[in-house]
């Protein structure tokens, strides 16, 4: 059977993999592994982003004294990640599929060199039939520099690996149009571009999750805008992964991808906002040009202020004349040169169109 997607990133949330008491739900892991193996054997390349390290480590150690939240995370994830990957290794081995562990941190996405290095690692794994199993390296991540949660990480991975789809598995059937516990609420089956979902989302999270539904929807929209289908579905439902791929009527929320996919380098820039070293403030006319259909670079004549100190090739935020962030780009010169050229005609672009992502 022809598969709709050649490459799929699958994110499994902590609560899918853990029982109520916090122990690892090996039965669920085994069921999901079977489905991934089925898709893999049908020729779909899978990249797995799996949470569950902290949750599975929690039940393994009894700390001698009360630990602060950083110590807890480091201790539990160190123990739990080993347990988690060991389980995956055994489960996939039953299908004759090799798996490899990729532990990463947010900083590894900060420079283009690090980014391409990671991309190369996962590409070579896929070329050799190995399923990458990715998680944040919680043991060495610095709290302030962590991913909001693994939804953010999965968005980066799907984008970096040019996946056709990102499937986010949680403990819920999709995004509800009201409180999920309210019987009158139903799952929103399709979400088009530009739809504001904030009024539907409650602040509640599952007991082992970190980010909640709001981060999921924000990431999903961003990734879909880059041309990737994003699906939020219930990882606790039997056969969910295979059903999603093969049966369009499966209950889940689908974010319709943009019809104009963005280039690989623009995808990196789109997710690099957190690494921005400075800001370019642009005038009204340049803002209008950027939002028009034609490709346009940021020329010095349209810049009204340059904030922060940055080097050539650093990431900068683009801010409109009202102070709203409108995009992210890679600077073509350093901040001193940008200040010198600002407001002048006939100068080289400060951000070239090929390295500019407008939100
Ligand atoms: N409108 C909504 N539709 C679905 N879930 C919602 C909504 N608003 C809040 N949620 C909550 O978001 C939770 C899923 O997010 P999260 O706890 O981060 O899961 P995960 O651990 O899988 O990443 C659901 O269990 C639900 O309680
Ligand atoms: N890296 C953490 C993941 C925490 C997290 O983001 O969880 P979730 O919100 O369930 O995706 C772990 O493995 O425990």
Automatic annotation (TrEMBL):
<dbReference type="Pfam" id="PF01472">
    <property type="entry name" value="PUA"/>
</dbReference>
<dbReference type="InterPro" id="IPR001057">
    <property type="entry name" value="Glu/AcGlu_kinase"/>
</dbReference>
<dbReference type="GO" id="GO:0005829">
    <property type="term" value="C:cytosol"/>
</dbReference>
<dbReference type="InterPro" id="IPR005715">
    <property type="entry name" value="Glu_5kinase/COase_Synthase"/>
</dbReference>
<dbReference type="Pfam" id="PF00696">
    <property type="entry name" value="AA_kinase"/>
</dbReference>
<dbReference type="GO" id="GO:0005524">
    <property type="term" value="F:ATP binding"/>
</dbReference>
<dbReference type="InterPro" id="IPR036974">
    <property type="entry name" value="PUA_sf"/>
</dbReference>
<dbReference type="InterPro" id="IPR019797">
    <property type="entry name" value="Glutamate_5-kinase_CS"/>
</dbReference>
<dbReference type="GO" id="GO:0055129">
    <property type="term" value="P:L-proline biosynthetic process"/>
</dbReference>
<keyword id="KW-0418">Kinase</keyword>
<dbReference type="InterPro" id="IPR041739">
    <property type="entry name" value="G5K_ProB"/>
</dbReference>
<comment type="function">
    <text>Catalyzes the transfer of a phosphate group to glutamate to form L-glutamate 5-phosphate.</text>
</comment>
<dbReference type="InterPro" id="IPR001048">
    <property type="entry name" value="Asp/Glu/Uridylate_kinase"/>
</dbReference>
<comment type="similarity">
    <text>Belongs to the glutamate 5-kinase family.</text>
</comment>
<dbReference type="InterPro" id="IPR011529">
    <property type="entry name" value="Glu_5kinase"/>
</dbReference>
<feature type="binding site">
    <location>
        <position position="11"/>
    </location>
    <ligand>
        <name>ATP</name>
    </ligand>
</feature>
<protein>
    <recommendedName>
        <fullName>Glutamate 5-kinase</fullName>
        <ecNumber>2.7.2.11</ecNumber>
    </recommendedName>
</protein>
<feature type="domain" description="PUA">
    <location>
        <begin position="288"/>
        <end position="356"/>
    </location>
</feature>
<dbReference type="GO" id="GO:0004349">
    <property type="term" value="F:glutamate 5-kinase activity"/>
</dbReference>
<dbReference type="InterPro" id="IPR015947">
    <property type="entry name" value="PUA-like_sf"/>
</dbReference>
<dbReference type="GO" id="GO:0003723">
    <property type="term" value="F:RNA binding"/>
</dbReference>
<comment type="pathway">
    <text>Amino-acid biosynthesis; L-proline biosynthesis; L-glutamate 5-semialdehyde from L-glutamate: step 1/2.</text>
</comment>
<feature type="binding site">
    <location>
        <position position="138"/>
    </location>
    <ligand>
        <name>substrate</name>
    </ligand>
</feature>
<keyword id="KW-0028">Amino-acid biosynthesis</keyword>
<keyword id="KW-0547">Nucleotide-binding</keyword>
<dbReference type="InterPro" id="IPR036393">
    <property type="entry name" value="AceGlu_kinase-like_sf"/>
</dbReference>
<keyword id="KW-0963">Cytoplasm</keyword>
<feature type="binding site">
    <location>
        <position position="150"/>
    </location>
    <ligand>
        <name>substrate</name>
    </ligand>
</feature>
<keyword id="KW-0808">Transferase</keyword>
<feature type="binding site">
    <location>
        <position position="51"/>
    </location>
    <ligand>
        <name>substrate</name>
    </ligand>
</feature>
<keyword id="KW-0641">Proline biosynthesis</keyword>
<keyword id="KW-0067">ATP-binding</keyword>
<dbReference type="InterPro" id="IPR002478">
    <property type="entry name" value="PUA"/>
</dbReference>
